[in-house]
Amino acid sequence: MQELCLEQQNTSNQPLTHLTESIPAVSHIAPFEQKLLECYAERIALSVRRATNFTQSLLQQHLAPDITLLNRRGQPLILHGKDICNEGTWRKFLTAATLATPQLCSLVEGTETITRRYRSWLLTSYTQRYKNLVQPAHLTWFHHVTRLAVIWHIMEAKAQHSAFVDPWVAQEMEALEALGTLATEVAKAIHHIVKEPKEEAPRLLEHLYLVHAAEMTRPHLAPQPLPALPEGMHPPLALLPKGEQEQMGLPEETAQ
Prior knowledge:
disordered N terminus
């Protein structure tokens, strides 16, 4: 798996034409098929990362942003979905789990295994709050939210390690990161404009524009359609709503 992840890093800027080669028999998953599955997973997971924040991602997936349950004393306790995706919480989990980088760079190979470990860690080793999850409906919510959080963080890891197989997804993630930075800079600029003299506003806005103009105006790739999966192989990460698969360059049955 380490070799595959390293190979992904080297090919993140290459076209997808290599995926149109003849597909081998599905007696085992060959490297070609692993890459094809990972491309499918990346495009589907990209729809999750396009949300403004994790709470919006939950809403897009028709999941409640928070739930209310009772603790052992019978007192109301609110669990926020965004806390499950919190960066600090995730870093503590990674420290405890000592996961290898290649596993963190693969949606197909890593999502389910990491999600199981993340759930177990939250329920047993992190905080007392999650030990109050006993009702089936609450556990179902927790099950879905943890999986979404892991997908969110794997996409972040792929961006950090240049481990995308699909160059279009890599490009789109760069744009999303730029938008995130832009939002932060806008907030800072507004703060300074309020505090500084009015004549400072044009200078601050011009600086903000120059910082992000290059990223926003550079040419962008269009998504190339992916070849169909081999017979008997199912699409990974069934998250994409119907109607979006064509926009993502995926065959129609992917969203089923």
